[in-house]
Design goal:
Layout lengths: L1 E6 L5 H4 L3 H8 L4 E6 L12 E2 L9 E2 L1 H14 L7 E10 L2 H8 L3 E6 L4 E2 L1 H6 L3 E4 L9 H12 L9 H5 L25 E2 L2 E2 L9 H19 L11 H24 L1
Parallel strand pairs: 1-2, 1-6, 4-7, 5-6, 5-8
Antiparallel strand pairs: 3-4, 9-10
Helix pairs in contact: 4-6, 8-9
Length: 263
């Protein structure tokens, strides 16, 4: 996988790329991250990348010419191979695990990091494959978002985690895929078994793998129903899952009724 990141702050990524997953993936050659300074694609002595918006208004807007030149330069080096050009923008499609899996199927991605008041609309209309948002909030620029996208995509590449089952068991994994996937992950525990009086559930210590599977499944469904119930509408549930959810709902109703009675 090759990431081409177009930004006016290439130094922003120096720390991000020197730690953790992205550092290991680069060192192993599984990922290549190329940083392109947008100012290198300007044609004036001040290396201007922005200008005032037509029609007035606050802030400055990225000019289209440097962005088009930068992407065209990347394409010229790629021997004509097609790849997505992703504009990081709060107006874009939301980054989900399913979108990360879609992006991970490509061999190359170009990430455009906006700044200031925004980017000339012609970039979104005629240069970007699509816009992508990491959440319903506004950042000062696309660099943080680009780092999030690279991390989310890189960990899905074969061999990067060392154990492909790790990413397969993540929360939101395969949201539109196999039965039961796409829900939140179950709780996890490690040593010590007793920490300040808080005990690890006995079922995890007993060694019965089928009981452990059932417990984890129930707790994952319980977490999803309590914290992110909207996810349940978009995943395929097994008959076992439906029975567990009914039990969870009945228990919650019983608990609520008991609480009202005690009051």
């Amino acid at each position: 996988m090759v990431f081409d990141v177009i930004t006016i702050f290439p130094d922003f990524f120096s720390s991000v790329l020197e730690h953790g997953l992205l550092k290991r993936a680069r060192a192993s050659g599984q990922v290549q991250i190329r940083l392109h300074d947008l100012r290198d694609f300007t044609d004036d002595r001040h290396r201007t990348v922005d200008d005032r918006p037509f029609g007035g208004g606050p802030g400055m807007v990225f000019k289209p010419e440097p962005l088009f030149r930068a992407v065209e330069s990347v394409k010229a080096e790629s021997s004509g191979a097609a790849f997505p050009v992703v504009l990081l923008s709060p107006q874009g499609r939301l980054l989900t695990q399913a979108v990360a899996e879609e992006l991970a199927r490509h061999e190359r991605l170009v990430l455009l990091c906006g700044r200031y008041e925004g980017v000339d609309e012609r970039v979104a209309e005629h240069l970007a494959t699509y816009e992508l948002s990491i959440g319903d909030y506004v950042l000062s620029g696309g660099e943080l978002a680009a780092a999030v996208v690279m991390e989310a995509v890189t960990r899905l590449l074969p061999g990067v985690l060392g154990n492909e089952e790790s990413s397969a068991q993540d929360s939101f994994a395969h949201a539109a895929g196999p039965v039961g996937k796409g829900i939140l992950d179950c709780p996890h525990y490690t040593r010590p078994a007793d920490f300040r009086g808080w005990q690890v559930p006995e079922v995890l210590l007993a060694g019965d793998h089928e009981e452990i599977r059932r417990w984890r499944r129930r707790r994952a469904l319980e977490k999803t129903w309590c914290k992110r119930p909207e996810l349940l509408a978009s995943v395929a549930l097994s008959e076992e899952d439906r029975k567990i959810l009914e039990e969870i709902k009945h228990a919650a109703l019983a608990s609520a009724a008991s609480g009202r009675g005690d009051a």
